[in-house]
Amino acid sequence: MKIKEGFQLREVCGEYVVVAYGMKNIDFSKVINLNESAADMWKAVVGKEFTVEDLKNALLDTYDVSEEQAFADAQRVAAEWKEIGLVS
């Protein structure tokens, strides 16, 4: 997977949001909010190819969670990112 060109993570008033730039990515009907752990995963993989395993490792590097919980969370986030079109 890779985060598609044209999306950037921004912190706005203490909240993490993904903003689109470029005409092909603009859809003003959606605001994509990320919680802190999803934002940390984004930061860990932006600009490079990654797997669910990479997302899991980003969580393990930052949070005190079990490997099983980190993997489950990484799978959920990856599926959500795919569903809304953030990754290819």
Q: Describe it for me?
A:
The structure is a single chain. With 88 residues, the protein is α+β, with helices and mostly antiparallel strands. The chain has one domain (7-83). The chain is built from three helices and three strands. It has helices at 36-45, 52-62, 67-83; strands spanning 7-12, 15-20, 32-34. The chain has a three-stranded antiparallel beta sheet. β1 (7-12) and β2 form a beta hairpin. The longest helix has 17 residues, at 67-83. The radius of gyration is 13 Å and the shape is globular. It starts with 6 loop residues before the first strand and ends in a 5-residue tail after the last helix. The model has no long low-confidence stretch (mean pLDDT 91).
Write the layout of secondary structure elements.
Blueprint: E1 7-12, E2 15-20, E3 32-34, H1 36-45, H2 52-62, H3 67-83
Antiparallel strand pairs: 1-2, 2-3
Helix pairs in contact: 1-2, 2-3
Main beta-sheet annotation: 3 strands, antiparallel
- Quickly count the helices: 3
Structural shape:
globular
Portion in strands: 15-25%
Domain count: the total is 1
Q: What's the alpha carbon Rg, rounded to whole Å?
A: 13 Å
How does the helix and strand content classify structurally? Answer: alpha+beta
> How many runs of DSSP E, i.e. beta strands?
3
Uncertain runs: none
Could you list some keywords that capture this structure?
globular; 3 helices; 3 strands; three-stranded antiparallel beta sheet
